[in-house]
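User: Here's a chain of 351 residues. Predict its fold as C-alpha cells.
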Amino acid sequence: MPVRIAVLLAFATVTVAAQSVTIREQGARPFGGTVVGDPAKGSLHCDHGYLEWQIPETPRRVPLVMVHASSTKTWDTTFDGREGFRHIFLRRGFPVYLTDLPRTGRAGQGCGPTSYTPELNHDQVWFTNWRLGLWLPGDPTPDFYPGVQFPQTERALNEFFRIQYPEFNAPENERVETDALAALLNEIGPSVLLTHSSTGIRGWITATKTTNVAAIVSYEPGDAVFPESEMPPPIERIDGMKLPPGRAIPMADFLKLTKVPIQIVWGDYIPSTPDTINVGPRLSLDNRRVNVMRATLMVDAIRRHGGDAVNILLPEIGIRGNTHFPMLDLNNVQIADLLSKFLAEKRLDRR
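Assistant: Prediction complete.
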C-alpha cells in the first residue's frame, strides 16, 4: 500500500510544512558483499554495502543512486533542517537510493581490519578543507568566507563537525566498494550515479564494471582516470610537489565512460591559479585547484574519444558561495535545479 508522508521542516524559529508525497515503496537492506571462513568452523558475512530507498507512486524510469564519501548526511537533511537532495528529488518523482559503501557507516562489517586514530585538530582542518572559510592555527574561532552558502549558526556548525565517518581509501577499499556498487546496479537496473569527493573515483571505476550506469554526476571528485596510453604529465602543486593527474586504466575500460553522459560540478573559493599563500594549513585549497585541473583533463580525454562530459565551476555560471557540499548549502535547490536540467537534457527524467 502506498504511504502518505508529510515532512515537517524546522530550522531557526521558522516551521515549514512541506507538501506531502505518496511513497509506493520504501525499505533498507544490505547489498553485495561476500562470506569468508568455513561455516563448519566459523564464518563472517562482510564487505557489503547498505541501502535505503524510497520510490514515489508514479516514478520516473531512471533512479538516482546517491553515493556519499564520508557521511550519509551528504544527501540527506541539510545542516539547518531543510530538505536535502534525497527529499528534493523524491518530490520531483525520482526513485532515490541512498548508500553506505562497504566498511563505512551502516555497512561497517568489513572482511579486513581497519583502524581509526582521532585527530585533535579535526574541526579546524575540515572547516578549511571543506571551504566554509578559514580556521588557521592560533585562531580561537573560525572565519567564514564572505557570502558562503553555509548556515552560520552554532547548531549548523556543531552538526557539521559531527557527521564525518572515517574514510578508508586504500586500493582494497576502492575495489571492495566498486564491486558492491556494480552488484547493486545489476540488481536495480540502469541508474544515475551521484558521487561526491572521494567517491568520485568510485563512480568512474563502477562504470567500468557494469553496464547499468545511465549517467554520472560527480560533485568535486577527488581523482580522475585516463587511458593507460594517454596519461597527461604530472601537475605541480604550489609546494613544488608533482602530483599524478589521475589513474591509468585500460583503454577498453576508459571507453566505457564515453558511453554515458557525465557532469562534474565544483563550488566556490577554489584558487584558479597557484598562490604561495596556499601552503601549510591552506594547502588543501591548492589541492582542490589540482583536482579541478584533473577533472578538466579527464573531460577533454572523454570528449576526444567521442564521449559526453562537462566540467562546471559554479561561479563561472553565476552561482556563488558554495562549499565542498553544494547539495547541503543554503542554495541547494538551485544546485538541484542544475541537476534536473542535466537529467532533462539527457532524457533521463522520463516517466
